[in-house]
Specification:
single chain; mainly alpha; two-stranded antiparallel sheet; about 160 residues
Length: about 160
């Protein structure tokens, strides 16, 4: 009979002062606001890429239908994307991604897939993982995404 091993205890995290806690909350809030601002443009760029893959072009009307928003909302966002040099378009014409926009769409798609892979490795259904990843992918840090990638890779090795 082998002696049972007690799990190693972690040292409790040092307590933070009120000022440190407040600074941490402020940093988290600013980061979340920055991610929220980028989320819309990332969703649009990804959708434009999807539409081009499916239909050869992206049109505002198709985007409004897929996103469940008005054509006015799409038009405003399209102007912002053009100003950021993520797309090229002319009024009443198809919308195309610039190389910068294509690169962003590919990065977003990769993040999305990594989050889906991680969630399904945890046992989440593919359907729920796809829905949940749509929000998580925009807010996950590079550090957390790397940890998800390592976890998923190790999980696959063990299978």
């Amino acid at each position: 009979m082998t002696p049972s091993r007690k799990p190693a205890r972690r040292k409790p995290a040092p307590s933070r002062s009120a000022a440190e806690q407040e600074a941490l909350r402020a940093t988290a809030f600013r980061t979340s606001r920055r991610h929220n601002a980028a989320e819309t443009e990332e969703d649009y760029v990804e959708l434009i890429d999807d539409l081009i893959r499916e239909r050869g072009e992206a049109r505002s009307v198709d985007m409004a239908q897929r996103l469940g928003v008005s054509h006015v909302t799409v038009a405003k966002t399209i102007r912002r994307l053009r100003d950021k040099e993520l797309i090229q378009y002319e009024p009443y014409r198809a919308i195309f991604l610039t190389p910068k926009g294509k690169s962003l769409a590919e990065r977003c798609r990769g993040r999305h897939q990594q989050v889906v892979d991680f969630l399904t490795a945890l046992g989440v259904s593919t359907r729920a993982a796809e829905v949940d990843a749509e929000g998580i992918e925009h807010h996950v840090s590079a550090e957390t995404l790397d940890a998800m990638r390592r976890f998923t890779r190790e999980r696959r090795k063990g299978s």
